[in-house]
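Last lecture ended with a question: if I hand you only a sequence, what can you say about the shape of the protein? Today we answer it with a concrete record. The protein is Amidohydrolase family protein. Below, first the input exactly as provided, then the predicted structure, then a couple of comments.
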Amino acid sequence: MVIVGDRIVRIEQGGQGGTAGAEIIDGKGKFLLPGFIDMHAHLLFPRCHPGRAEPQFDRGLSEKALSRQLEFGITTVRSPATPTVEGLKLRDDVNAGRVRGPRALASAELINDSALTDAQLRAAVRDALPNRPDYFKVYARLGPEQVATVIDEAHRHHIPVIGHLQKTSWAAGARLGIDHLAHSVDWSVESLPPAARPAYMKALEARPGFRSRIDWLEAFDPGSADQQQLISLLARERISVDLTLIAYDGKFSPQEDERYRKNPYLTSFPELRNDWEQCADATADWTAEDYRRWTAARPKLLRWVKAMSDGGVLLVTGTDLTNEWITPGEGLHQEFGLLAEAGLTPNQILRMTGASAAEALRRDDIGVVEVGRRADLVLLSADPRQSIGNTRSIMWVMQGGKIVVRAAPRP
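The predicted structure:
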C-alpha cells in the first residue's frame, strides 16, 4: 500500500513498487483495518453538580476522552446530541487539529420539549443553522406530528435527523422519513403486542424510571409480524441503527460487575467514576429481584439485534459515551464483545464499525481500506476475524496518513 498525504493512492501485492524516499512500514503477519467508527459518542461530558438544573460541561475532560478514543483505534465519531454552541465549537476544533482526537460529526442540541409548537420546532432548527450542525436529533418525548415537523424543516436545509424515539415508535419514525435511529429498541408502547400494553402502562405507574424497562422487555415480542415488518422497512429504507448495547449493560450493571464499574481502563478517569457514583447510579435502588428479572429478559434484546442483522438492517456500532460506566475508547471494544454475544460474527462487527458506519454517515472517504479513501488505519498484531477481542491488539493507529498512536493503550 502506498499513502501520499492523507490518502491511500495505491494497493499492491507483495509490497512492490516502493517510492523513493518513502517511509517503509513492515506489516507482515499483522492485520490492517480501517479506523474504528463510534456512531454514538457525545463530545462533551456533563459533570456531576447536585442541585443544578442545567448540566455543566467539562471541556478539559472532554478533550482528554477524545484523545483516549484515538488511542483505542477510533478515528471517527458521531456525536448524536451536542450543546449547539459549545459542542459544535469542539467539533470544529477537533477537525481543525487544534484538539487531539477522532474527526467528528455532531448534532445540534437534542429537541425534546413536547410543548413546542410547529413554529417553535421549526425555529429551533433554523436557530442552530449558523453553527453548521451535521444533524438534528429528535428525542423521546416528541410525538409523531412534532417529529414530522423537525424532519421536514431539517430536510429543507439538507440536514439528516437522528431519532432517540419513544413516544413516537420506530415504525412511525421510519414512515415519517427519519434518517437514523439510536439504541437497540424504542421502548414505545406501540411496539408491544396490543394485549401486553395495558399491563405495561400499569407497570409504568408502579415502577417509574429504569425499572419499567424490564417490564417492557418482558412484554416485547421480537418475532411478531409487526416487528418483522419493521425490520423490512428499516432495511429497505437503509435507516441506520446504532445499537449501544453497552449503554444498557453498563447502566444496569450491579456494583460488583468487573466489566464496567471495575474496568481497569477507568482508572485514567477518576472524575468520571466519582460523578457516576455520586449522581448517575441508575440502579442504586434496584433489588435482587430487579437484577434477576433484567438478567432473564436481556437475551431477548440480543435476539432482536440478531434478527435485525439477519434482516439486512444497516446496523452500526455506537456506545452512548458520556453515559455511566462507559469507559472512553475501551467502551467501543466492549460493545464489539456484546455484539458477538448477540450472535454477530467478527466480520459483521468489523463491517458495522467500518463500511456500514461510513454508509450511514454518507461518507465515501472512510470506513474501507481502498484507493482514494483517507489513510485512517489501525494495525493489529492478532487477527480480529478469529476473535473480535483482538481489536484491542493495537500496534499503531494512523489518522490522515500520520501515525498518531504507536502502542496499545494501558490502564
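Comments.
1. The chain has a mean pLDDT of 95.
2. The two ends are 32 Å apart (CA to CA).
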